[in-house]
Amino acid sequence: MYQPQTIDEYICSEETKRAVQDAINQSKGGLLPHILIRGQSGCGKTSLVNVLKNESGYEHVVSIMGNTVSTIEELYSRIQDCVNKYTRLCKKTIVFIDEVHRLPKKAQELLFPILDNGVLINKLGTRSQVYELTIVCATTDSGAMLLPLRNRFNVTIDVTKHSIKNMLRILANNCMQFLPQTFSEESLLKVANRSRGVPRTGITFVNNIHVKYANTQEILCENVEDFFTERGIDGVGLLPRDREYLAFLSKSGTIGLDAIAFGIQLDKTVICDEIEPYLLQIGFIVKSGRGRKITNIGNEYLSLINSTKTMQISQDCYERLAGAYIQEIAGVVRRSVPDMK
């Protein structure tokens, strides 16, 4: 996967880039501020940490996954190992804690004095000053973090889902760097449309298409269409289970999560974490205190799919259905895409 090394190579929204540049500017002649990065999985949070390291003159990134830490002692040990190995030798180091909200609450509290005063405190209360160290945390669910921890970060950067324009740039970079085939501009556009604004999803699609058509010199639109049709992925990037969810809501009216989970035989966590966020984003459903409800635009989408008996939605219908986010695939965006040949 293509990994940006500098802020100029890092593709993101203008708002995100300004926040990143502000953080880098604060590090001039010293350390980065402690940073919280928020955003969905696969949108570039880990890549951003690498950019921060390079742009700010850090030597090391020590990564810790929040779901691999079960006790406060374990987190203390990992940070202390980093201090002993790097920062005591005056080597500027980022401790990157991914999915920080998955840390036990006591382990989250261990970070308080580090963020406040650069002090690491063990279970006996022994205090040690840490130098040349910056804490960078990433989360897909900042609401699950302790509020005092969220409030202690000097800088918060939101890595949002990507526009179609940026998705095309990311996919083009990945193709040119790592794949022997060329993808036509129209074929990459079809991949970008179905990637839900998430680079990791789009790059996975591109890599799988490459494998399927390994003996093909150039990947064309029909190749991409065949790939997605075989997998049941429609023109808006919805999977069969997404369409089943929408069809159930269309028949049921406003309905609660428990009833939906029972009706379509899916776990509530899967519905909340994997199905509903994108449907909410593109305006196909709404949520209220009474439950979930399909919108007019969601019903129109189902009608279109059912009437045409195909998952390939025309460009005009596609733009009309999914609102402002989808409309970014207008001609001005197409013209801005670099030549991929």
Structure overview:
By secondary structure, this protein is of the alpha/beta class. The chain folds into three domains: 145 residues, P-loop containing nucleotide triphosphate hydrolases (Rossmann fold, 3-Layer(aba) Sandwich); 68 residues, Helicase, Ruva Protein, domain 3 (Orthogonal Bundle), CATH 1.10.8.60; 71 residues, Arc Repressor Mutant, subunit A (Orthogonal Bundle), CATH 1.10.10.10. Helix content is 50%, strand content 13%. The strands form four sheets. It has a five-stranded parallel sheet, sandwiched between helices. A two-stranded antiparallel sheet has the order 4-5. A two-stranded parallel ribbon has the order 8-9. It is globular. The C terminus is likely disordered.
Give the helices and strands, then pairings.
Elements: H1 14-26, E1 35-38, H2 45-55, E2 60-65, H3 72-85, E3 93-98, H4 105-117, E4 119-121, E5 127-129, E6 133-139, H5 147-152, E7 155-158, H6 164-178, E8 182-183, H7 185-193, H8 199-212, E9 218-219, H9 221-230, H10 240-252, H11 257-264, H12 268-281, E10 285-288, E11 291-294, H13 296-308, H14 315-321, H15 323-326, H16 331-336
Parallel strand pairs: 1-6, 1-7, 2-3, 3-6, 8-9
Antiparallel strand pairs: 4-5, 10-11
